[in-house]
Design brief:
Elements lengths: L2 H9 L5 E6 L2 H9 L5 E3 L1 H9 L9 H12 L6 E4 L7 H13 L4 E5 L18 H15 L5 E6 L2 H4 L1 H14 L3 E4 L5 H10 L5 E4 L11 H7 L3 E4 L2 H20 L11 H7 L2 H10 L4 H6 L1
Parallel strand pairs: 1-2, 1-8, 2-3, 3-4, 4-5, 5-6, 6-7, 7-8
Length: 295
């Protein structure tokens, strides 16, 4: 089955889809090998890992799509990509979406922030008009053409205009062609419930960031509320960062990694990155040196 169609089929199930957030190919391979059905590329994570900079609009479209393309080529499960604002006006959105589809992306998030955007859980966000983002969603639907790409319309209006304004915007985005609605950064369980109540028949997306503005709930709790997709976009980034910090701190203090707790060994890591497969290829296409010398 086509991966975009596979994502749509998953959306039709009553069970919520749990998306781990990744920022590189290694993380994506882990997600697939652990049995998750869909993977998510985090703009925050790509900005942090690629540039060492915060998610405040410094990552370009080219840098985002380069990373997303490489990650998509690594796995055989649907991939949902955070494409920020689409990087410009509706014509720019068409270019961005077309390139994403060409890379194998099966779902995209387009948000209604002004550029340069900010992480959805940062202060100081500003949004464009609802009418402007409606046209961007229409442009994305145009670029999708007859394909199955899933368009997730995100609004950041909760921060500057309030929850009801964010809900109104979401309704307009759905009417413009979005498949899934995403009200970013609701600030309480009651607000999450209000969003779910406003859209009982529309697929809903929710963002769970440890230490962010939205209460981090279990996938089962969110499913019971009425949400269809939950992404945990930064847990992997935070975990990897803490593990590296611990390792490097031990090395700095002791002059060796001996004694640092590391449950993953070299052989296990070889399996993760398919070293046996490449050794087999090397063997298959190795030149026969003895025969070559005789000839």
């Amino acid at each position: 089955m086509d991966l975009a169609r596979q994502l749509r089929t998953l959306l039709e199930r009553p069970e919520i889809i749990v998306l781990p957030g990744v920022y590189d190919c290694l993380g994506a391979k882990l997600v697939e090998q652990l049995g998750f059905e869909v993977v998510f590329t985090s703009g925050f994570g790509i900005s942090a890992s690629t540039l060492g900079m915060p998610d405040v609009g410094l990552l370009t479209a080219t840098e985002t799509l380069y990373s997303v393309d490489r990650i998509a080529s690594t796995v055989n499960i649907p991939l949902v990509a955070d494409l920020d604002t689409g990087y410009g006006n509706p014509v720019n959105v068409i270019r961005t979406v077309t390139d994403a589809i060409r890379s194998g992306v099966t779902g995209i998030i387009l948000e209604d922030q002004q550029w340069p955007k900010k992480c959805g859980h940062f202060q100081g966000k500003q949004v464009i008009s609802m009418e402007e983002h409606v046209e961007k969603i229409k442009a994305a639907a145009h670029a999708r053409d007859d394909g199955d790409l899933v368009i997730i319309a995100r609004t950041d209006a909760r921060a500057s205009e309030g929850l009801q304004a964010a809900i109104r915007r979401s309704q307009s985005y759905y009417e413009a062609g979005a498949d899934v609605l995403f009200v970013e950064a609701p600030q309480s369980v009651e607000e999450l419930q209000a969003i779910a109540a406003a859209f009982p028949d529309v697929p809903l997306f929710v963002n769970a960031i440890e230490g962010g503005k939205t209460p981090v709930l279990s996938s089962q709790q969110l499913q019971d509320m009425g949400f269809d997709i939950v992404v945990y976009p930064l847990a992997g980034l935070f975990a990897a960062t803490q593990a590296m910090k611990s390792c490097f701190q031990h090395l700095k203090e002791n002059g060796t990694t001996v004694g640092w707790e590391n449950p993953l060994d070299f052989q296990e890591f070889e399996k993760l990155i398919d070293v046996p497969h490449y050794r087999e290829l090397e063997s298959k296409f190795a030149a026969d040196e003895d025969n070559s010398e005789q000839e």
